[in-house]
Amino acid sequence: MMRSHYCGQLNESLDGQEITLCGWVHRRRDHGGVIFLDIRDREGLAQVVFDPDRADTFAKADRVRSEYVVKITGKVRLRPEGARNANMASGAIEVLGYELQVLNEAETPPFPLNEYTDVGEETRLRYRFIDLRRPEMAEKLKLRSRITSSIRRYLDENGFLDVETPILTRATPEGARDYLVPSRTHAGSFFALPQSPQLFKQLLMVAGFDRYYQIAKCFRDEDLRADRQPEFTQIDIETSFLDEAEIMHLTETMIRNLFKDVLGVEFGELPHMTLAEAMRRFGSDKPDLRIPMELVDVADQLKDVDFKVFSGPANDPKGRVAALRVPGGASMPRKQIDDYTKFVGNYGAKGLAYIKVNERAKGVEGLQSPIVKNIAEPNLNTILDRVGAVDGDIVFFGADRAKVVNDALGALRIKLGHDLNLLTAEWAPLWVVDFPMFEENDDGSLTAMHHPFTSPKCSPEELEANPAAALSRAYDLVLNGTELGGGSIRIHDKAMQQTVFRVLGISEDEQQEKFGFLLDALKYGAPPHGGLAFGLDRLVMLMTGASSIREVIAFPKTQSAACVMTQAPGVVDGKSLRELHIRLREQPKAE
Question: Mean pLDDT lowest for which of 109-123, 240-254, 448-462?
Fold first, then answer.
């Protein structure tokens, strides 16, 4: 081997030993006749000292520059007291350099790596192979590796088998647009890249592989956000002969072990919350329990007011009027309130009514708001009592369709919690359960809330008679307001699966065309089964404290689903297109 040790592994126990390092020159310093090189590899930094006693080696050290690739042999020695660096793993020692070999020179990189600089993300992604040399980026990828190792170890120890499923498959309705791959050998036909291994893992249950897992690549052609990528990694788990409580216990233990193993963080038993309660109290299906503020329904106190902004939604069965108390928020300047009004407008809210509670003992005179004149004092007092308002608070109101109120006040609650530093804990995990089977579209049709293979908590007859009221056997694991993963008990009965398809408006011909292989499998002895999938990228993002999943993926795509490093996607030549039986339409020229 070219090296004997990694830089970050050097410590006092190696004092006096001769070692060999390989890595990059992170920093070079000339201190009046003595040259210091900080050498960097994936494990950290080590300081190497060159003095003029070894003239040839000293001359080489004098010529090297940042990012040169070098091999260095020398002796480990303790640093003098006062010269130790507590910010380096190897900060108690240094290496006296005997030999230096330049393995490769380097041009000046497009951005410095030896100090923090605010480099644009596109530049970082264009030179990602250089960006990944930065110690903070290396730490994120190393932690990602430890996370996957811990998960694999737990699942292996609990009898799960790692089974790969196909990447080239067929399109199925899973909620997002598929990436399509044209077939050369089947003219006019297309493969689809999997949005998840959903159907294949269910077929593995039918095949008798009762504990399956896979750390799988998945693909979705959708508009991107900070926590979305066109290709992402999923921790996919499926089991047979376990109910939802047992699956949740098994995977919760995995997550608790993971945090203890990797971060030294111990969770107690995770709380469970129904979706209905989460939406009522937090306006979100993935509530962040670190923020000590809740939405409170006040429609009953506003049904008869003359102010139609409130009375309209208060009397609408599909409307909602809710209040959000912000502790100490009465000192908030008008500009800040205006900024929050613009913020909730992004979620469809037409405005943001508020009441500043200056001095409750003075009644209406102690309240500051343009809306108090529209609400009778007894109703005002009931509202303020219900939300627990005290002097110095501000109370925000949302009044609209329930979805708009939930989206707007739910997002405002999160923003206020961070803006005002109200978080009460570092971690707040929970399970969200009792999801509806279906969501209603604007045209009155139904779509599956999770996917069409989720089992309901009722019989086929009850489901068909009242699908809007049906609850599913689904569950989501939420951490700090982020959905880490979700799963469900699957349908293992052919009659129930066909009922769900009918409710969704999928005809028998379409059922057979798209899911015939699954329906065939269900009639050959499918066991009761269920599972769960975790988003690995989101999990790593939370555990590393990164602001985006792009920070924890080695080679991510940009917001426009492109790779600026490889210039993908790219143009394909005419011969390749002809072989795929594809002809491109000419785009009309912009005038």
Answer: 109-123
Residues 119, 125, 128, 133: what is their CA dihedral angle, to the nearest 10 degrees? 30
Cα separation, 132 vs 230, whole angstroms: 21
Residue among 552, 291, 541 at smallest CA distance from 424 = 291
The b/e string for 468-487 (b: 16+ C-beta within 10 A; e otherwise) is eebbbbbbbbbbbbebbbbb
Annotate 410-466 with DSSP letters as a single string. HHHHHHHHHHTT----S--EEEEE--BSEEE-TTS-EEESS-TTBPBSS-HHHHHH-
CA distances from 430 to 1, 36, 433, 480 (A): 48, 51, 10, 9
d(CA 32, CA 582): 68
Residue positions counted in the chain: 591
How far is residue 309's CA from residue 370's CA, in Å, rounded to a whole number?
13
List, for residues 513-542, the tens digit of each pLDDT value.
888 888 888 889 999 999 999 999 999 999
First to last CA, the chain: 63
pLDDT at 510: 87
How is residue 127 annotated by DSSP? T
Structure tokens at 244: 């939802």
Residue with tokens 């959708």: 222
Element (H, E) at 259: helix 244-263
The pTM is what?
0.91
Q: How many helices (H) and strands (E) does the chain have?
A: 16, 22
Given the DSSP bridges, would you call strands 319-326 and 272-274 parallel, antiparallel or unpaired?
A: unpaired
Q: Model confidence over 104-122: pLDDT tens digits?
A: 999 999 998 877 678 888 9
Cβ(356)–Cβ(367) below 8 Å? yes
